Amino acid sequence: MNRFEGKKVLVTGAASGIGQATAIRFAEEGANVVIADVNEAGLQTTAELMAQAPIIKPYNALDNDSSQALVNEAAEGGLDVVCNISGTFGWGPSENFSLGEFERIMQINTTSVFAICQAALPHLEKTKGTIVNTASTAALQGIAYTIAYSASKHAVAAITKGLALEYGAKGVRVNAICPGHVDTPMAAMIQENIPEGNIDFDLVMRNAPKLVDGTCQPSDIASLFAYLASQEASKVTGSLFTMDGGQLAG
Amino acid sequence: MKILRLHRVEYFVNDEEASKVTGSLFTMDGGQLAG
């Protein structure tokens, strides 16, 4: 398929994991891709894996001015698709969870996502473009010991649906993907860094994937980004699409 | 128009690319349920 020939696509979080796979996928389908991340070395690695040379834009999601400058630079010459994939994670018993860490997670996962959407929407109005955000299964249920992350992703779901309402009449679609467990460097980091304190692991593991091989690969999630950004999804807006190997089925 | 929409859903969910999707409800409603 070559669904994005002549389209400009901004992918944040493109240095690794889902973002990297998504950048590769859009380039495979003919897009002119702008890849962005705080990890400049990772961006170079991603660029080497892409079928077409991307535009590389380092930025810092902790800085809203940086997030919005990224969009305005990426939109030079037009912007059709924004994939908000940058994110971070932190977990631990709530009684000891640092408020500073809570705010850091909210800034990267939520505030920066809104800042990018806000800057992108005027450009997307011109092209009748689309935004695909990264929520999570943590946007659809509470997760013990993961309050900040879950709150940040619930907020992404709310941003997605609210913007879909505001911009539907202007021809801009806004959706979000809710991945379950994905085999990424961030997931590996979570497993390798077990926080101190009392943790009931039965609570942590209560929503394991139901499929035999239910852990998603980054490329699985990338395929959903491509679908939601494509014309095939032209009637989809304000939707949360779950790809989780059946984690939330029950 | 409804048939067309169903075809569009089928295109993704029957594809190999959706091999990790099960138990999910995908909405294609032009934003009806956004709020």
TrEMBL record, chain A:
<dbReference type="Pfam" id="PF13561">
    <property type="entry name" value="adh_short_C2"/>
</dbReference>
<dbReference type="InterPro" id="IPR036291">
    <property type="entry name" value="NAD(P)-bd_dom_sf"/>
</dbReference>
<protein>
    <submittedName>
        <fullName>SDR family NAD(P)-dependent oxidoreductase</fullName>
    </submittedName>
</protein>
<dbReference type="InterPro" id="IPR020904">
    <property type="entry name" value="Sc_DH/Rdtase_CS"/>
</dbReference>
<comment type="similarity">
    <text>Belongs to the short-chain dehydrogenases/reductases (SDR) family.</text>
</comment>
<dbReference type="InterPro" id="IPR002347">
    <property type="entry name" value="SDR_fam"/>
</dbReference>
